[in-house]
Amino acid sequence: MRVNSILPGDCVEELKKLPENSIDLIFADPPYNMQLKNALYRPDNTKVNGVDDTWDRFSSFAEYDEFCTAWLRECRRVLKDSGSIWVIGSYHNIFRVGNIMLNLGFWILNDVTWHKTNPMPNFLGKRFTNATETLLWCAKGESYKKYIFNHKIMKRYNGGKQMTSVWRIGLCTGEERLKGENGGKAHSTQKPEELLKRVILSTTKRGDIVLDPFFGTGTTGAVAKKLKRGYIGIEKEPEYIALAKNRIDGIKTFFPEADWEEEETGKRNRVPFEVLLRERLIQAGEQLYARKTYNAAAFVLSNGKLEYKNQTGSIHKIGALIQRTPSCNGWKFWYIMRGDKSVLIDELRNEYLQGKRGI
Ligand SMILES: C[S@@+](CC[C@H](N)C(=O)[O-])C[C@H]1O[C@@H](n2cnc3c(N)ncnc32)[C@H](O)[C@@H]1O
Asked: In which band, very low, low, confident or very high, does the pLDDT at 36 lie, cut at 50, 70 and 90?
């Protein structure tokens, strides 16, 4: 199995070649089966660029259902027991797809609504403007409980509040939208990276493999790479494969969120206090001040310990002593003066870490 590659061909055939229980996350954006009968025109008689591609055409609902059953069955086979799957669709197909998924044994964890902040108007004025798509996030089955959900990371991503299942995100436009030779859209249904960012950030770990059986312009691969995950794409149109490859090869920078997992687990932040002295972010002899409610100050010694009222110890030990608690996170307890501002020493630690990362 080649990670970070695009497999050309039909997704059912290509999925069959992948080993079972090998994929951490699947994101699928299958044909919508829109059933468009006639071209759609705006009031000024210009033609609307809808989804009228041949890859979206099926002769009947039965044919569409058969196709969806085939690719979803293979997805379930290749998915790890600890994995999960996201399938996105509009009202045209998501209910059929959801029904098939349930029949195959998948277990719905959330139905996320993508609320499009800039939807295409309803030009005929005969229905409400359609401004949503649905993402079904599912585990392999009811008893498969070991799926990943990065609750803390998503809360942090959402500014400290739990994220809800309604995501307000604009359609993919501007610089992000890939253009064809005539300057028009290179692909009719390119998804916004923000959507995939939430999907991948919330339900994978760094280094996991994300599979997308309907790769299109490679949005899943692009975001997986930016989040330091691996990807496998399947796409049957050579034109889109070339676009996606070019797009992903051009990515040279990562999303900062790619490192959040390590930060959350504390691995990356394990910096001995004396390193800040060595790096001259703090000098021996300077004073540290305790958090506001404790009117206390301690001297920094050259060995990275603190001296407080004839006692010496680490930033954590002296912090605990002052608070009369069994333990203390000294990084979040001690302040130091920088100019006329008091700065939490944790900020100096972050400064050191960022310099180390070259950010
Ligand atoms: C809705 S689009 C996916 C767009 C993609 N998420 C993006 O952001 O660019 C569906 C894609 O699946 C491809 N496709 C349709 N049927 C397929 C099949 N049987 N096997 C592989 N690819 C297929 C189409 O060519 C199209 O690019």
From this structure: low
